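REQUEST ID: PR-0412
SUBMITTED BY: lab tech R.K.
PRIORITY: routine
TASK: structure prediction, single protein chain
INPUT:
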Amino acid sequence: MATKTIVAGDLYESITGQLFEIGRQLRQPNGYPFDPHLLKLHLQNAVEGKFDGVTLIDPRFEHVKEFKLTVPADYDHGTQLGTLKHEEFYYFNDAITDGNFRNATQKLVPGKTYKAKLFRIKKTVTSDDCLGLYKAVGAILTGAQGMSLVYQLKKDELPKGKWTISFDEKDALWQVPDGSHRVPGVRAHSVGDFGFDLGGFEGGWNSDDVVLCLCDCE
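STATUS: complete
OUTPUT:
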């Protein structure tokens, strides 16, 4: 049984001050600056005395599956997108090129095995929310290259009837003339066809989408 502690003095004042600060932030006219869904989860863990440091995932994302992906020994980041065979897709966005997506934050390592984790979006989220998911699960940011390699090696693992999207930092993504940025994604149809297209970083994502996270294997 856990030892109970009387909280008083400076410690009591410090903790209650933090609670008041959370309340102040929630009441800001311009909005709460962090993720309120994660705040709720962390507070519930605190209520239950769970201080084990477990990473909490935004409840708007649901883990659906994971699998391992080994990068081929001859993989070349600079030419990866050029190896895609456009005729294999029912639709292929011609803007998905090595030139447009040359600035990936992290490059896949030839011969290395990664763990791919797929998360279904349950409620509408922003791209920043998705990047928060990447941070929570320790995923690397590989953008179009990561998505293309998963298609080439593990396309049967992609959820049918959904867009599987692969993120990078906004500034690393291809920027169109109107100033917006594009996020690559592959749609797997139930009949076995695939499409490779680009969505808008500045828009929202919903239950039609699944987030691909590539992580280092433990």
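NOTES: The chain has a mean pLDDT of 92.
REVIEWED BY: pending
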